[in-house]
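Please discuss these two lines.
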Amino acid sequence: KCFTSMIILLAILAGCRSEFLVEAYVSDAYLDENVNTPAAMRVEIPSCSSQAEYEGKILSLFEPHSNAKITGCEEEGMNSLIAVSIDAEMSSKNSKRDLIIFRDILDDLEIEGKIYEVRALKPVISQGFLQRVNSLMQENMQTLSHNDIKFEIALNNDEREEVFVTSYNLWVDGEPFEVYRRQALKRRKKIKLTFSNLTSDLILRNKMPVAAYVARQK
C-alpha cells in the first residue's frame, strides 16, 4: 500500500503522485505582516474506498496552525487522489506554518518609463514538517523524491492596475515557457504557474528558490 502524505510537494512513497496548489494574492506580496493564504493538497492513494485508512496519517504531519482538513477524494482515470485543505502563510520573516511563501523586497524596476516595486515569492516547507515526513517514510523504508511532486501557484491580481509577472522554466496555464518575463497580469485576472521538478527539489532541500517575481507600479 502507498502510505503517502505531504504538504506542498512531498510523497510518502516514491512513485506516489502528490500535488499542491496555493492561492496567492498580489496585494499580500506588498504587506509587511504575516497573512493567511489558502492552499490545497492532493495525494495519490490506492482507492477512494480506502480513504479512511490514510486520513489520520496525513493529518498527523501538520501543525495545528495549518488547520489541515480532509475535503474528499477524487478519481482521475485510474488514479485516486485524497484532497486536503490547509492554511499556508505569506510572510516576510518568520512563520509557524508548515507551508510558507516568503516575500523578498527587491530593487525598483523601470518598465516603459514607469517605476515598479518588485517582490520575489519563495516557497518554503518547515523543517518540522520535513522531519515528520522523513520519519514516516523511514518506517516504510522509503526516501523522499521530487520526481512525483507537482507544485503550483494560482496568482490572483487583486490590485487596481495590471502587474507584471516573471518566472522561468515553468508552465503558465498549461503552456510551457523557458522564460516568462514581464508578462502583464490584468486586474482581477488569475494565472496558474506550474513549476518543474527542479523547483520542487530546491524546495525539498530548503534552498528557497524564487518561484515568481511580481512588479507593481508605485
Notes: DSSP finds three helices and eleven strands in the chain.
